[in-house]
Amino acid sequence: MRTDSSSPASSPASSTAAAILPLVGGPANVVSVAHCMTRLRLGLADPSRADEEALRAVPGVLGVVVDDGSYQVVLGPGAVTTVTAAFEKLLGPCPAGLSTADELAARGAELRAARRRRNATPLKTALRRLAAVFVPLVPALIGCGILAGVNGLLLNAGWLPGLTPALTAVASGFMALIAVFVGYHTAKEFGGTPILGGAVAAIVVHPGVAKVTAFGVTLAPGQGGVLGALAAALLATRVERWCRGRVPQTLDVLLTPTLTVLVAGLGTLYGLMYAAGAVSSAIGTAANWLLATTGPFAGLVLGGLFLPLVMLGLHQALIPVHTTLIAQQGYTVLLPVLAMAGAGQVGAAMAVYVRLRHDTSIRTTIRSALPAGLLGIGEPLVYGVSLPLGRPFLTACAGGAAGGAFVGFFAMLGDKVGATAIGPSGWALFPLLSGNRGLGVTAAIYAGGLLTGYAVGFTATYLFGIPDRPPKPTAPPSP
């Protein structure tokens, strides 16, 4: 056996993985392994065999969440990737006594589906499926949003005039065709053929719709935006599934795609685009009116309630709203306000760090999680610090409310602060900022909101948020 420092067994990730494995019931109890940006997600054959209290005491583990049968160990960005790889090596090629990786995946899927059926509510199911449509688009939204911001700076400064047309095309291409991607993922999620969903959704952005007139109104390319694409793909999926059960198998390959595109396409042109266009316009009007008319109050409510919404999983309902605003106006005015919740969380964590000088464990957790929190990834701080302690979660919400009110106040004065993409928040949102008063003013207002959130979150937590005797960490509510 190798014992030198370069051995995988000696790495911190391997040590953490080795400590986690027996505490979740050992290899025989693990039926699936995956990870997201911050969490190791495990499917367990028998979740009762996991020792949550011991898991929370493992160095490097920031929290434990159980959601619809998925056992989630919060490790933080970066660490989760290396620990997951080490964990999979410890399991070997055939965990849970299964003969192939495919059988393991199938077994894990069966268990997750069974638990979801037991625990699902109509609202949670709808939000989960909605998120499955839009979340895969986030990386492209981030990349194109940053490029659009860089291109805007170059245009305003008059630099590199030979390059800016190319950057404009690169940054705008995805947004011009986002309806196709929404349609593709909608059909995939709801049981249709993805390419047919994309084909029908493509009608929404096709220039030829400008020649279509119905009910005395001429359509415009892109009318209805992502909501129109979502509705078009849902209709295509329904039509396709109807055809599959009625068209003879010998003709299925010809008739089903043809009827799907024809019926759903006509329904999109002569109904869905009009309805979705009206809804999209109403969303944009409502968002602008809300901040322009009740700015500080709206910011207070949105910034203060966003962390609880995340805990309940209800924030997923905002994804299509953000996407609609970006497609319609070029940026979403809601995201910078909601991002203030993370600022309150950072301020609260700093206060805990200062007040609990002798609690080495909590201070170590804060030191490791704070950089991610400053960049808008708040889960390590939420599950590792504020939720287990209780009161700091509430005072963090107070900091988020104050930061939201700050941004909302300037929105009421006519200074809009928006984001050209969704996903990042905190200081990572600066490259994506946009507004109606120039980048300098927009960035200054957003920075002022962050500093307000930090200050109020810190002060409220320092004065009111630290229990005399911090309680033993308990399992946080499922997000």
Mean pLDDT: 86
Q: Tell me the helix content.
A: 55-70%
**SS-based class:** alpha+beta
Radius of gyration: 25 Å
Pick out the low-confidence regions: 1-9, 94-102, 470-479
Neighbour order of strands in the largest sheet: 1-2-4-3
Order of helices and strands: HEEHEEHHHHHHHEEHHHHHHHHEEH
Task: Tell me the overall shape.
Answer: globular
**Main beta-sheet strand count, sense and barrel state:** 4 strands, antiparallel
- Taking the alpha carbons of the first and last residues, their distance comes to 42 Å
Strand content: 5-15%
**Total tally of structural domains:** 3
Number of helical elements: 18
Strands, total number: 8
Explain how this protein is built.
It is a single chain. The protein has 479 residues and is an alpha+beta fold. It folds into three domains: 8-120, Glucose permease domain IIB (Gyrase A, domain 2, 2-Layer Sandwich); 132-286, no CATH class; 302-465, no CATH class. 65% of the residues lie in helices and 7% in strands. The strands form three sheets. A four-stranded antiparallel sheet has the order 1-2-4-3. Helix 5 (122-134) crosses helix 8 (178-189), helix 14 (340-355) crosses helix 18 (439-465) and helix 16 packs across helix 17. The longest helix is centred in the middle third of the chain and has 64 residues, at 249-312. It starts with 11 loop residues before the first helix and ends in a 14-residue tail after the last helix. The model is unreliable at 1-9, 94-102 and 470-479 (pLDDT under 50).
List the helices and strands and how they pair.
Elements: H1 12-23, E1 30-35, E2 39-44, H2 52-56, E3 63-67, E4 70-74, H3 79-91, H4 101-119, H5 122-134, H6 138-157, H7 164-176, H8 178-189, H9 194-205, E5 213-214, E6 217-218, H10 225-244, H11 249-312, H12 319-329, H13 334-338, H14 340-355, H15 360-374, H16 379-389, H17 391-412, E7 417-419, E8 433-435, H18 439-465
Antiparallel strand pairs: 1-2, 2-4, 3-4, 5-6, 7-8
